[in-house]
Prior knowledge:
Elements: H1 6-9, E1 16-21, H2 25-29, H3 31-40, E2 47-52, H4 60-64, E3 69-77, E4 80-88, E5 91-96, H5 101-106, E6 115-118, H6 141-155, E7 165-168, H7 175-190, H8 194-203, E8 205-206, E9 208-212, E10 215-217, H9 223-230, E11 238-240, E12 245-249, E13 267-270, H10 274-297, H11 303-307, H12 310-324, H13 332-346, H14 355-358, H15 362-369, H16 371-381, H17 386-398, E14 404-405, E15 408-413, E16 416-420, H18 424-433, H19 438-446, H20 449-452, H21 462-476, H22 478-483
Parallel strand pairs: 1-2, 1-6, 2-5, 3-11, 6-7, 7-8, 12-13
Antiparallel strand pairs: 3-4, 9-12, 10-11, 14-15, 15-16
Helix pairs in contact: 6-7, 10-12, 10-13, 10-15, 10-17, 17-21, 19-21
Amino acid sequence: METLNRAKTGKKTRPVKVVQFGEGNFLRAFVDYMIDIANERGNFDGDIILIKPIEFGNLEPFRAQECQYTVSLRGNVDGVGRKINRIVTSVADAVDAISEYDEYMKLAEIDTLRFVVSNTTEAGIVYVPDDRFEMTPPSSFPAKLTKFLYHRFETFEGAEDKGLVMLPVELIDDNGLHLKECVLAQIENWGLSDEFRKWVENSCVFTQTLVDRIVTGYPKANEEKEWEELGYEDRIMVTGEPFALWVIESDKDISKEFDLPGAGLPVIFTRDHHPYKQRKVRILNGAHTSFVLMAYLMGKDIVRDSMQDDDIRKFMNETIYDEVIPTLTLPEEDLKAFASEVVNRFNNPFVDHALLAISLNSVSKWRARCLPSFLGYVEKFGRLPVHLTFSIAALIEFYHGTEIVDGVLKGSRNGQPYDIKDDEAVLRFFAENSAKEPADIVSAYLAREDFHGKDLNGIEGLAEAVTAYVSDIRENGMRNAMEKIG
Length: 486
């Protein structure tokens, strides 16, 4: 079978406008996919060069296909499960920053270059003081970027119009701000010139972003069937869901030169991305965290099956619409539209999202995703939000276990063991307290400031309500207890 390549795609040569630190599935199914559409619709006209920033992995599969690949989006579109395939031609080349260091640095000399995209994982944006300027390259991404920017600064003699726009999509709060702080710290550490520092601060742009798309990666289990359907061999194809959102906060207006919205793409330019992040974390992620532990103890294993259970779906909808949305700041119409799309995404017929996978580190997830809505509701209405309150009881019961084996707390569902994975302090707490009476474990759990940031026993009526729910779950089962709060 023929391998996908430029001859087959008819790729056009465009000016290189983007270098991208990271060649992984998410970037290719999200950023590169969007730029490809913008190219086709005449809103961008730019190529991308991928940079492999770490030793792990290799670029041979990319070179074998001349960086041409397929994005296959699978999910519900207008209520119907669909598979949408697109051959992406926006990537022109791929360079290894370590084994091809000189070629990597020469990318900084490209006159048309304007954007730097990165996805170096949550641990990638970190200042490493031991990185030295003479290293080829330094170890950390910010240090690599600093040297790259410095070479560009020198090449173009500090020309203001040769500054670059940073578009980090790492999943950390204020990603662009932290990246800029790391770069400036590296400039200070290396004793680079004040002129360069001013060029970075004034001619370069560090945006802050929020990205949202579930990318499920390469379909290894069904690759030959996929190739047969496509009509060619593609070893770097990537699958994901149709939904996407890219929110970009920038101090300088870059919307005209990065006109993805003009191509009909789901990109929002804003002066403040935080309300959109709040919406995602508290509706999408908060919905997951509030119902998955309960659903698992009701016998469900994946998200889609949970959504097809009327009781669980009703619980989730009432959590979102009655208890979360009233605490958020974006227009109610926008929030409800996003919530509707969340339910649609949870029902994706092509994705088997395991509840146990989502359950990882649920104590810290509940604090980040659900507690702000919980506290906002109490402050606004002066009473407990019943569904979010019940989710605390469901969490306590999901974490019920007294034995830790190989760093995993052992739970039991209908006599069958399951693994509970969290920080050591969390697992130790439940191992030591699960056998206690409901009132005692509830009080002890709510008191843990390291789990919640404060002692939640101070919230009027909370300990009593959670204790009653835990007692009901233990006596009558999860479904019977949950149905009573509807």
